[in-house]
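Section: Multi-chain targets

For targets with more than one molecule, the full set of components is provided together so that the structure can be written out for the assembly as a whole rather than chain by chain. Components appear in the order listed by the source. The example entry contains two components.
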Amino acid sequence: MRQLRHIGFRVLNVLPILFLVSILAFLLGVLTPGDPVEAQFASRFTPEQLDELRTTYGLDRPLWEQYFVWLKNLAADGGGLSLTLGTPVFDMLVPPFLNTLILTVAGALVCVVFGTLIGAIAGIFHGTWIDRAVMLLAQVGSNLSVYWFGLVLISVFSLQLGWLPVGGMQSRGGGGFADLLEHLVLPAVSAALISMLVLARFVRIGVIREAETDYVRTFRSQGVPLRTIYGRNIFRNIAPSIVNVTGLEIGTLITGVFFVEIVFNWPGIGTQLVNAVNGKDYPVIQGGIVLVALCYLLVNLVTDVIVDALDPRLRGA
Amino acid sequence: MRRNKRKAIIAAGIAAVLLLTGCSGGNDAGLPVDGGEFVTGLYLEPRGLDPHRQVYWETYRVSRNIFEPLVGEDLTTDSGVPGLVPVLATEWEHSDDGRVWTFQLRDGVTFHDGSPFDAAALHKNVRRVWDRSYEFFDEESAGRVKVWFDNLRAARPTGDHSYTFEFDKPFLGFPRILAQSMYTLPVGNPAVWEKYGNDGFAQHPEGTGPYRFASRAIGDRIVLQRNPDYWGPRPRLDTLTFRVIPNNQTRVASLLNGEVDLISYVPPDDVETLENAGFNVPEGTAAELVYFSFNRHNPVFEDDRVRRALIHGLDREALAKEVYNGFASPQYSFLPPGNEAYDPAARDFDYDPDRARRLLAEAGYDPGELRFNLVIDVANENLGQWLQAHLKAIGVEVDVVSLDRVNYSARVYHPQPGDGLSIDEFGETNAEWLHNGYNGLKNRGLDPAKYPDVTAAIDTALHTTDPDTRIRLWQQAEEKLRTNALVIPAVNLNRYYATGPNVEGFVYASTNWYDLSPVWLSGSR
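Its structure, encoded as tokens over all components, is:
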């Protein structure tokens, strides 16, 4: 019951933040340089025609009025109409947002599974050549550009070996979970790369530190099998921090996902937002900011709740 | 189980036969095959599929399969000016003074929902873009066609399948303008905007075309299906899928990997890779003009000698070779190939760097003294850097200001002090395009009052009543524009599409778009 109240309190906390985000999103969209109407139409329209279009899109009204029109659009009208595509903003953003979510979740899975695995191996074999090799790879890997890494993956696994598709989310005929998985492998690995290596280092240090604690020494001296020590004790102790780091890293991962979407032509929200920014399509930029902010807030919320559940010591905090 | 096995053997046999015929088709181009799913990789997300609001070439490459104009162009023509062909109008005529145009509309044509296309339906299309008293008048559409319909005095059905437009002034270019991709009048189903509203049309695009809209996932793909009730020749392909692949490398890789059959905007560096791998990168002369505009708010360009010097100082042969790997042709006229008034012999000013230096000296500039900003869209960075190095040779210092598309557009229409040249792209097949192009230069600060001869020449050509002299009048107008050094034509792109080895019947038409209905897929790839 107490925990439920605690979660409820955190959810309520999100609301004022969302309100602030809506104001910020609106202002960011409106105040970024460049006139949206000119960006879209100027090359062939006369100045008078441009003014008429500004009236059509309500751009001649005062800012506060535009804000309420926008809020109304957001709540009731599919987020308004995109300037570049002329279609409702939510139609443009919600399906791609779900696609981005699929890629982010896949990336997060790759990050957690391989990050933990790599870090644990390095930590367990601390000081050996295995540790050094893994660390060297991590060092090199975390300095790679996601963009470049993605192109290398395409070149090797799609064009040379022909194992995986170049991009997109479905094949010609389309459909099927297996088809989706095939399309997901390379983008998920690219998206996860940096966060995975950060997590690996974190896990490695955690393992090394825990291995040097008194209780582990005691267990060892008592002849408790290593597998039990690592599996049951060390990992249980570092699990909350793995979740925590993963939660934090999801921010980095989402940023990486945006680049990955461009390279792999993943129909996600990143590509849409890049297009929107390029086209000064401010209704889409605004809608996108609200969606992404919502996503961040939810991830933070869920991370907090999981960490609380895993670590009883934090519950009162 | 046994039956399944037998079925499998039969299927394998059929597949083998198909494969063999397909292979032979690859050798001697064979007989066209019906069916198949054709996938196109676009470089740009199309705009909403609303016939009256569309912009960008890529939009029309999709939407023209759904919507049809009254008059079209012959897209089997791969060079020169495409002839006009009847589409939703079977014939058209104009009054002696060229002001009144009457179109006979094709009988027996239906929209995709089965409702008939007739003069009443056409009238609603016209009213949507022109008549403020119409319940579904659309400001945005009206803004787009205003350049042509501003002069429209009346428009009305003159029978069930006959329609008349009456202009204030003679307008002989009208039919070809109807055949263009945007800022014109492809016909949509009025029942849709009456049901879903003007903004809703783009989500339910319905016309009379050979393909029907099936689905759209923005950022991913648009799927069209063959229209079984199409009035014209049956298109060969079952479905057309347009995938949006903005990243150049990914688009080329998708073609190489067989995931798409056709791509647009092939990067010049990839042309040879694709050809070596057995893909077709057809050569064409469509209207794909790249040109440099002067910022006429900058007083240095008020001196004719300066503008002429910059044109004399530009080696367009070298530009085509060095920046575009030769996959572009030097362009000396503001009317590109494919345009009905294009004159291959037209020359503005030859490449003559000495002359350029002399003209600058006469205008009072010592070497290195004339300095301005070259404002470019990031996509043209290589071209910008080339131009910077190139103009240095005639003693002109250029600072490249590279901006994203939005800020580029905002900056060229609201230039800062010191801004000089900017890079633009455009081209259409109608001679009247010059009128649009001139408007564009006016938007960049050119004062038409200073060039009464150019303005008058354009006005004369636009409203001539003599069809025999119309093209010559446009060429004269272009010559006036050219000799006044009002713009710098640069190159025309000539490798633009690439198709898979199994794509047959694709024509790189001399327009800026293509017709997919005669295209078919042979079995082999």
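Chain A has a mean pLDDT of 81.
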